[in-house]
Design goal:
Layout lengths: L17 H4 L13 E3 L2 H13 L8 E7 L1 E2 L11 E2 L4 H16 L10 E8 L7 H14 L2 E11 L6 H10 L3 E7 L3 H6 L6 H14 L3 E8 L6 H14 L3 E6 L7 H7 L9 H17 L3 E2 L4 E3 L7 H7 L3 E5 L4 E4 L2 E5 L3 H10 L4 E7 L3 H13 L1 E3 H6 L5 H14 L3 E4 L2 E4 L1 H5 L1 H18 L1
Helix pairs in contact: 3-4, 4-5, 8-10, 13-17
Length: 447
């Protein structure tokens, strides 16, 4: 079988500095690429079976609530959907609460304890504090949260007022994920961030000093005019503030986003290219390692043991995820689903008593193996003994030449049955995972 599959198209360039030029572009794996759409006429029946427990659940389960509102559209962001209108906060919270309550007693919903809850968006903290608290309290009352469930609220610096923090904590939040992006005031303002760097430091310093919840900061590298010196200062400020965790994300120039349009029209300088992004990632990884932070995924570091990054870690490994709110995505067993992102259809479906489903996909036969490989790539350590143990004849012999070439290119190193990604391999991990999934898809085709 391996003779039928040519893996050389996934080979990396062998050079003196692989983090800069191992591949011509970063190519992530799209979530639905290995899944098949379910015909519209079958979606309702399958969904009913999913919540009634017909579909066997996976071992771990999560919950996600999508808040599709922002107070303004930051230039770099591709997730902006809606501006929050007057009266929109309590009205949307009512809909989400009704959605959670209505299906909470179904056998398939309570089949597993929920290990982590994530309120994302959009900007969840665009809602009024009382409405975030109501949603959190509903999740706690209606769903089987594990005793040590990680409950994350994502938001922007300017929204974390004392009132907001108190409401989230009262509702059961245990973790805050805050999109700082950069502390440089000029870079922030050019991207539409409203708080200055100094204001961000004050707000975050006060929040971290409370020690009432785990605090994680998101930093982005590669912005226009964000020099290596500015990036190094961002890392220094982050460490000095003392959060529990930090994410380092490469700027993704999203087609159609305001930043991409501004660059095309010459209104703003070009962002860092791939080679420069790779160097910035290396600067970040080296700096955090020297400061004693633990790298627990390709983009995430922990400073304290209270930061578990449980939601992100488990979602990458294919855990079930119950989804609520316009634009949310989730999964139960073999099926992945999304909810309509448009507010009017979402509202009408909830009022009719229906789940506002947009799409439903079913995974292929190799989904458990894909999830295991994705989880290993995400943490930078892949155990090949699992591939040998599952019923995937020919897969490991097919992949061996690929692993050998990636090792030669400086993207990984072998330690018996374990594969460890280098810093360059972690930077290019989207390409590695995409290649592994493509090879598995080809094997299914030839099977």
């Amino acid at each position: 079988m391996n003779a039928m599959i040519d893996v050389t198209e996934h080979f990396a360039r062998v050079s003196g500095d692989p983090i800069k030029d191992a591949f011509p572009a970063r190519r992530p794996m799209m979530p639905w690429a290995t899944k098949t759409p379910v015909p519209d006429e079958e979606i309702g029946g399958i969904w009913q079976g999913m919540i009634e427990g017909v579909e066997p659940p996976r071992d771990r389960r999560l919950a996600y609530v999508h808040i599709p509102f922002c107070t303004n559209h930051c230039l770099f962001c591709g997730f902006y959907r809606h501006r929050l209108r007057d009266g929109g906060s309590p009205a949307f919270a009512d809909l989400v609460i009704e959605e959670i309550r209505r299906e909470a007693q179904a056998p398939g919903i309570g089949a597993r304890p929920i290990q982590a809850v994530y309120l994302g968006g959009g900007t969840p903290t665009a809602l009024a504090p009382v409405d975030i608290q109501r949603i959190l309290e509903t999740l706690s009352r209606q769903l089987p949260l594990a005793p040590d469930c990680e409950v994350t609220v994502e938001g922007r610096v300017k929204d974390f007022t004392p009132e907001m923090i108190d409401a989230c904590l009262a509702g059961g939040a245990t973790r805050f994920s805050i999109g700082v992006q950069t502390f440089d005031t000029e870079v922030r303002r050019r991207q539409g961030r409203q708080a200055s760097g100094a204001q961000a430091e004050r707000v975050l310093g006060d929040l971290i000093a409370r020690r009432a919840a785990t605090v994680v900061l998101d930093l982005v590298y590669g912005f226009p005019d964000q020099t290596p010196e500015i990036w190094s200062e961002d890392l220094r400020i982050c460490h000095t503030l003392g959060p529990d965790g930090v994410d380092l994300y490469a700027l993704n120039l999203i087609r159609g986003a305001p930043l991409q349009q501004a660059i095309e029209h010459g209104k703003i300088a070009a962002p860092a290219d791939l080679s420069q992004q790779g160097e910035l990632y290396r600067i970040g990884a080296d700096a955090l390692a020297e400061l004693g932070w633990r790298q627990i995924s390709n983009s995430h570091w922990a400073r304290t043991h209270s930061e578990r990054n449980r939601y992100n870690r488990l979602i990458k490994r294919g855990a079930d995820c119950l989804a609520y709110g316009a634009g949310a995505g989730g999964s139960i067993g073999r099926y992945s689903y999304s909810l309509t992102a448009d507010l009017d259809p979402y509202r009408e479906a909830i009022r009719r008593g229906d789940k506002p489903l947009g799409t439903l996909h079913v995974a292929d036969a190799l989904a458990p193996l894909r999830d295991r490989i994705a989880g290993g790539i995400e943490i930078g350590c892949l155990d090949l003994s699992y591939i040998e143990a599952v019923e995937a004849p020919g897969l490991l012999p097919t992949l061996e030449p690929l692993f050998d070439q990636w090792a030669q290119a400086g993207l990984l190193r072998r330690d018996g049955s374990l594969i460890h990604l280098t810093t360059a391999g972690r930077f290019w991990s989207p390409n590695l995972l995409r290649a592994l999934n493509r090879v598995q898809s080809e094997m299914l085709t030839f099977a």
